Amino acid sequence: MYILTITEIENCSKGKYLLYLNDEAAFTLYGKEVKEFSLKEGMELSQELYQEILEKILTVRAKRRTLHLLDRRDMTERELRDRLEKGYYPEEAIDSAVEAAKKGNYLNDRRYAMQYALERSRRKSRRRIAEDLRQKGISAEEIELALEDISDSDQALLQKLIEKRCRQEDSLSPQSLCPEKRGKLIRFLASKGFTIPDIRRALQEYENCQ
Fold it and tell me: Quick one: which of 52, 3, 47, 5 has its CA closest to 26?
């Protein structure tokens, strides 16, 4: 049987303590909870006692924290797991909290991806949106479904962004911008995920229509 030893109890914030099991940060408890379970540095933590702490305190707290986080803003499953891990919730507590959030439809990666793609499609390329969603832990299948809901093509969006920028600069076309502002426009479009060849082609097409 794997032995768990409390190697350190660190005072990490007001009334809260971080417990280390076998020299690894494991979970946090309040001072009254440390006393309630008679936890001390150097003692062996039995599996039975660990499960009791996990079920009575840590899992309940992880679920409560999950609802608080998702009430503030929508998240992907990976983002939620990352936030809970930073709060020193054990993996078992995180799994339970994530499953409960999914069951209650508070956590839904497909819904998140579709909403994100729809909102960002007004100012970002499909390539940038896909990359953003990948970094947030969304699967390739969910990304593909989300991108299907975007009506405008990247070329159409480029034209809209160029026209908007030119209006802001009181310029008839990108060609009439000074080199510094034209370069700034190209960098702005590149930051939205468009490739330089696509940007230059869109600028040329826009200028030819003026």
Answer: 5
Residues ≥6 apart with Cβ < 8 Å to 205: 159
| CA atoms within 13 A of residue 204's CA, in its CB half-sphere | 6
Q: Which helix (H) or strand (E) holds 146?
A: helix 140-148
Nearby residues of 210 by Cβ (< 8 Å), 6 or more positions away: 172, 173, 175
Question: Which residue, 103, 82, 106, is CA-closest to 94?
Answer: 82
**Single residue among 103, 123, 139 that ends a domain in this structure:** 103
Question: What's the confidence (pLDDT) of residue 50?
Answer: 96
Same domain, 61 and 92: yes
Question: Which residues constitute the domain of residue 160?
Answer: 154-209
pLDDT class of 171 with cuts at 50, 70, 90: low
Residues 177, 185: contact at Cβ < 8 Å?
A: yes
Band (70; pLDDT cuts 50, 70, 90): very high
Average pLDDT, the chain: 91
pLDDT higher than 90, residue 67: yes
Do residue 144 and residue 163 come from a single domain? no
